[in-house]
Amino acid sequence: MSVISHSPRVLLMAALLAGTAAGSVSAQTQDPSDGGLAVTVSDTSPTDRSAMTEGPEVKGIISARSGAKVQVTSADGNRTVVVVDDATKISASKGLFGMGSNKLAATSLLNGLPVSIKTLQGGGTLLASEIKLQNKDLKTATMIRNGTDQGFAEQTAATEALRGRMGDIGKYNIKGTTNVNFDTGKYSLSPEAKQSLCAAASSAEGMDNALLLVVGYTDSTGNPEFNQVLSEKRAGGVVNFLQQACHWKPYRMLTPTGMSEADPLADNTTEEGKAQNRRVAVNILVSKGLDGL
Fold this sequence. Notes:
By secondary structure, this protein is an alpha+beta fold.
């Protein structure tokens, strides 16, 4: 039986985070349509905290970094930039890779990593006093980073090539497609989604020679790099659930992929349309040469 293999790789800008001198960087909230960060800072001395007051707690996914500045995209798509210095406390739950200590270096702040940040504010700057993250998320982000080395232009070309290969899926008959949806910026499965996935697996189980192709998508919120990672996390989560909870055999699964904002089902200018586009499609396929045998 022939199997389609998809293996697009994603750029994750894993630059080292340096500190910044007091007042040298201003905090900002960027428009989601804006690009990345552009300022580079080399001073690593801690910021003077004596004149600063408690700031807002920032939660979301790291979507960009430049020097001492870390950009965090929240679930609603807003982007907030905070400064990290040598005095910022960074920790992961249960310690790094299960070890006793849970203190981390700033180099652990990888793109695509969900974080919760306590801040101090003063002089137009948001300073990260404490950053917390989950050990399991750090493992995932590290594996993604270590397995990807393409520049963004190459990644875009790979995605376009993948779309062309998806067009060759005419070698298969599509017996059904189940879409499960997600909240903005999230990749966790709802109870309804879990039920739909096991129903799809059960339906496919009754078809001879059926395979599953899982493809993740996002709406237009956020930048392309963030959305590529998010779409892959959504697809990966669905595959894990299908195999672990729905007992779908791994050898009957085509390689999953994330397609970011590509191929929207609905209009991305409306909230209703965006909700439909935040999805993972589970396609039941049977090779045309085997269909009906």
